[in-house]
Design brief:
Length: 844
């Protein structure tokens, strides 16, 4: 019976996918066409009310600060080294990553390590080395790889599993790491380097920043709840990177803006780069270089395999139009002021916004949306003219922000796109400024693509270890460009680049023709507008001999543009073999975007087929390596999550147990991470945040005010303000209590203590925890002087994983944390973790 059912399902799948079959397996281009055909008549898919409600649901996932200590028999820091060897030939980079794990304890462990990679990386190989033995990993369907790994782990065999959590976030599991074991895991990946204004940039991400867990799936996104070292504490493992460059044109300049490096030039066209410092594993390694004459290596790359041939076209676009040809524009700036932005990232955002605002033209309009656990809109009724008065008041309001709370990006995007539009003929551009430490990337891509006809979107990543997958994914979905700002002193430079990009596209209505060159499975199949001097890049396969020409046409501000490349001038080269993986990775990226629009089996099958056919790590395929030797006779081991350093410039406010967790907490306590007024509290990374906005809740699409009704008020505007206050001041009130109120609170003296349970979630026997809390807190003299709201995250063993001070005195954290973080009670989490929120106040 089961066999017949399987045969029937297989036959049904074959019928459904028959139009998409090609010699190399599933045709990604036909699958994409079929998916597009299923969209609604206007080309977009709408979120249902239930779907939007689900996106806003509060989740228990949250990173937490690592606390040293615990069982001395267990190795708590198993990662001993991570390093990379980079080979750059022309525009292709090949990278070999080394990770060394060692068990210095005296019991078997399973090591779990969360680490990043380039968003353009095509990971196509893995191996595990145990002494003199090397085990080459196999690519398998994700569930099959997990099953094989779990079976090997239970059998006591050493094994490693590499899974993709996000396009730029991976997890490495190493099972049965025995006492004094030393296991090395190697990864191979390739990527193409695309120059921007003549500058090539290679980025090697070093650490995954803490993600806000609101809206993430506790079953599939467990990696978000990873431990982090305290602010300022460097990585606990050795970090190193080396790079060798070979270019077709002599090198003009080679620098690293992120690390101190030593460069040895072997010739005018080649150089070796290595670190000239220790450490540096808490920020992205960035290598930038220019070629002589500021030229770029445009042209055609080809490679011939046994069964398939591949190519990549890189063509330089025309020059930018003159300022007189630029139409009026409306800018909506969506600015992250959450806990992970506290300090350097928010300071950089302020510098960036000040420059962007003051450089706008009088004919422009602008608006500002600030978001953390909720969002505020500067002018909900419609964007403001870019007058000096409006710009000055907006800049002042932004400069008052301190950073705190969760990172509810999706709600802020909805609010931004719901702002009433300006007159026809005005081009709308949304600019998102964030570190990207969120866990709902796919939902954000989906929303931006659904509203692609309403605005272009540009994404600014702020910080030393930005979530580049979110930045690039949103920009790709909105047909814009991503930008990364590493330091405050670079904000002005990036602001200038943004203005140059969004002034006007340099090439529109682009068409790529293949004349007497049999190309197929070309990606992208539709080319978006080019916004600056960034080459056009097209991947594809071809049949037969490399001949004919490729012609690119389009429209510029001054008229028609046409340029062609003679294929025969670019002979296939063995060094271009990564083109097969880069082609497959490009298609995976396009199909992943489509999955974000709405999961479909044919899309998942196409991605799986690409992963299996080209030995590629994807969201549906994983690498697994299993040693034949049985090392652990008992099969018992402890799982250890390798703690990560916080990215340079990111404070403890970015994780659940921040020093105070007390971000923008002036209002009352709400529920589900959304408080009342400016204050309340958020969930996940950062803790307390802004409360409920006057915009409609995420459960229903936001709408503009009715014609006969009042316009929606901004977040913290409970009633019309005095006439002497500006509209900007009404929308963005100061984020701190007055000196008089603060002094009054400080003088409060209590003769007793009251503890009130506000809420609990996924927690059994909370009464036992409440009793222990009462006993412990009453013994703390710092409590008696202040009112405070606490959130505790508890694991399945009753241990407190993290502590957040959601509102109250910021100085309480140093007093409370040592006691509460060592607390273990009879309370038990019934899910991945449980939450208890309590209010502690002076009383009789």
């Amino acid at each position: 019976m089961v066999g017949n059912l399987r045969q029937s399902l297989a036959l049904l799948a074959a019928v459904l996918l028959a139009p998409a079959l090609a010699a190399g397996g599933v045709s990604p281009s036909k699958v994409l066409e079929q998916s597009d055909a299923k969209l609604s008549p206007n080309g977009f898919v709408s979120l249902s009310r239930q779907q939007t409600a689900d996106l806003g649901e509060d989740k228990t996932l949250s990173p937490y600060l690592y606390v040293a200590g615990g069982d001395p028999a267990t190795e708590r820091l198993p990662l001993k080294e991570t390093s990379a060897e980079v080979q750059i030939a022309g525009v292709i980079a090949r990278v070999k990553v080394h990770q060394i794990f060692e068990n210095s304890g005296n019991i078997p462990i399973e090591a779990v390590y969360v680490f990043p990679a380039s968003t353009r990386a095509a990971v196509h190989g893995m191996r595990m080395k145990i002494g003199a033995r090397t085990v080459e990993a196999k690519i398998e369907r994700k569930q099959e790889a997990r099953a094989q790994y779990a079976a090997a782990k239970a059998a006591g065999q050493r094994a490693s599993l590499l899974e993709q959590q996000r396009p730029n976030v991976f997890t490495m599991n190493v099972a049965n790491l025995m006492p004094r074991d030393r296991i090395e895991v190697e990864l191979d990946y390739s990527e193409m380097l695309v120059p921007d204004d003549g500058v090539y940039e290679f980025v090697y991400p070093t650490v995954v920043g803490p993600r806000y867990g609101g809206g993430a799936n506790p079953q599939t996104d467990k990696w978000i709840a990873n431990p982090y070292l305290s602010e300022g504490q460097g990585e606990t493992y050795r970090f190193d990177i080396k790079a060798h460059l070979e270019t077709g044109i002599p090198l003009k300049e080679l620098v690293s803006p992120s690390h101190k490096v030593k460069v040895d030039y072997a010739s005018a066209n080649s150089a070796d780069v290595r670190l000239d410092q220790s450490g540096g594993g808490n920020k992205d390694f960035i290598l930038r270089y220019r070629l002589a004459g500021d030229r770029v290596e445009t042209g055609l790359l080809t490679w011939q395999g046994e069964k398939e041939n591949f190519f990549a076209l890189m063509m330089e676009p025309p020059q930018r139009p003159s300022p007189s040809q630029i139409p009026p524009r409306e800018y909506i700036f969506v600015v992250d002021v959450s806990g992970s932005m506290h300090g350097f990232p928010l300071d950089t955002s302020k510098a960036l916004m000040n420059d962007l605002l003051r450089q706008m033209r009088p004919s422009d309009f602008f608006n500002v949306v600030l978001f953390s656990g909720a969002f505020q809109i500067l002018a909900p009724q419609g964007s403001l003219p870019a007058t000096s008065a409006n710009i000055g008041q907006a800049a002042e309001a932004i400069n008052r922000q301190q950073g705190g709370g969760g990172t509810e990006l999706l709600a802020a995007l909805r609010g931004a796109y719901a702002i009433p539009r300006q007159a026809r003929g005005t081009s709308r551009t949304v600019v998102v400024i964030t570190d990207g430490f969120v866990g709902v990337e796919a939902q954000s891509f989906k929303f931006v693509r659904e509203h692609l006809n309403e605005a272009n979107l540009f994404a600014f990543g702020i910080g030393t270890s930005v979530n580049r997958a979110l930045m690039e994914g949103m920009a790709r979905a909105g047909q814009g460009e991503p930008f990364i700002v590493l330091r405050p002193d670079k904000a002005a430079e990036q602001a200038l680049k943004l203005r140059q990009y969004i002034e006007a596209p340099v090439l529109t209505d682009i068409n790529v023709r293949f004349n007497d060159f049999e190309a197929y499975e070309v990606a992208p199949s539709k080319v978006p507008d080019l916004m600056a001097r960034r080459p056009l890049v097209v991947f594809g396969k071809y049949r037969g001999a490399p001949r004919g020409n490729i012609q690119v046409t389009g429209m510029t501000a001054s008229g028609r543009f046409s340029q062609s490349v003679e294929v025969a001038q670019f002979a296939p080269k063995a060094q271009n073999s990564p083109l097969r993986w880069l082609w497959a990775r490009k298609w995976v990226s396009l199909l992943d975007d489509e999955v974000a629009m709405g999961p479909a089996k044919e899309l998942e099958d196409a991605i799986t087929d690409l992963g299996l056919s080209y030995t590629l790590l994807t969201n549906y395929t994983s690498f697994v390596a299993i040693d034949s030797e049985k090392a652990n006779r008992t099969g018992q081991s402890q799982t250890v999550d390798q703690p990560l350093p916080l990215p340079e410039g990111v404070s403890n406010y970015a994780v659940g147990s921040s020093p105070s967790g007390n971000a923008l907490s002036l209002g009352g306590v709400g529920t589900k991470g959304r408080g009342g007024g400016l204050g309340g509290y958020g969930t996940g990374a950062g803790g307390g945040g802004m409360g409920i906005s006057s915009m409609p809740s995420p459960a229903a699409p936001p709408v503009a005010a009715a014609a006969d009704g009042p316009a929606p008020r901004s977040l913290a505007e409970p009633k019309p303000m005095a006439a002497r206050r500006s509209k900007v001041e009404e929308s963005f009130p100061p984020a701190k209590a007055s000196a008089v109120e603060k002094e009054k609170d400080e003088k409060q003296v209590a003769v007793g203590l009251q503890i009130q349970k506000l809420s609990e979630r996924d927690l059994a026997n909370s009464g036992a925890l409440m009793a222990q809390l009462e006993t412990l807190l009453k013994a703390q003299p710092c409590i008696a002087q202040s009112k405070v709201v606490l959130r505790l995250t508890i694991d399945a063993n009753g241990k407190v994983l993290s502590l957040q001070v959601l509102s109250g005195d910021e100085g309480l954290a140093s007093c409370l944390r040592p006691k509460l973080m060592s607390l273990v009670s009879a309370a038990r989490a019934t899910a991945a973790s449980g939450i208890l929120e309590v209010a502690v106040s002076p009383g009789n």
